Amino acid sequence: MRQCRICGIPETVDGVELDESGVCRACRRQIRHIPSRKELREKVRKALENSEKVLVAVSGGLDSLAALGLALRICDEVVALTVDTGALHPEAWRRIILARRMSGIEWEIIGDQKPFLKLFEERLTRAESPCGPCSRMITRRYERRARELGVDAIVTGHELPHGTSPVVPKDPPVIRAMCGMTENERREIVEEEFGLTVDKISGYTSNCIVLPFALKLFYMKYGYSFEAPRLAAMVRYGYISREDMEQIMTPPTLSDLKELLRECEEWIPESLKQMLQKVINKISNSDLGRENGD
């Protein structure tokens, strides 16, 4: 299997074409225009300094907690918001509780599981990624609350900039606070501000239970990870290495998914538990599940 010699994205990913030198179209277009991480970090710092009151979207994962920690260091007034999708890992909730206690800030939790659970069921049934529509649903909720609170900006844990800027020109603007920051730098912020370490779930996510199941089903259907384009972009921007990308793109095993469900089954909605058990049953009955030795 051929891979882009710069970002490592496999040629098997839909829409990826490598030229004679082994470089993908995205790298050819973007590589000369990527700002340095130092420049991106400076833009984030200035945007935060110019925002007196901010709303930080916190999911309990590494990136959003690091964004919260950075905002607490710089901004005068910080409000945190967590959207309860029904799919947050118990460890993510534990970190949210501890960060809330450590920071002492106003922290709102929006309980709105029903539309998310419907989305997860639809996407898992079709073996498609739930991430894009889920992210848009969450975004609509914190943008609406941000306007109600009259904040100067929304802060998120995203790292890939909007064009060449980490600030998305919306009302209010969105600051992608992790632009320019490596994973180690993010971990340092979370440990220093909240005394927390953040482990990954099934090799990739640090908060969402559904993602590993969706990744496995998508891989069985298409033969590659739907996270490949985003991970390749992270390699392109220097946030992770190609070796890290290849490790993350390896789909979870059936044993991984069974263990994950055991960890969470007492904490998640019954309907989600049943969905994930159906996925496990489907994989168990497939050739790929048997090949994994599970």
TrEMBL record:
The organism encoding this protein is: Methanopyrus kandleri (strain AV19 / DSM 6324 / JCM 9639 / NBRC 100938)
Report what the protein is called: Predicted ATPase of the PP-loop superfamily implicated in cell cycle control
> Gene3D superfamilies from the xrefs?
HUPs (3.40.50.620)
Annotated InterPro entries:
ATPase_PP-loop_MJ1599 (IPR012121), Ni-pincer_cofactor_biosynth (IPR052188), Rossmann-like_a/b/a_fold (IPR014729)
Where is the organism placed in the taxonomic lineage, from the top?
A: Archaea, Methanobacteriati, Methanobacteriota, Methanomada group, Methanopyri
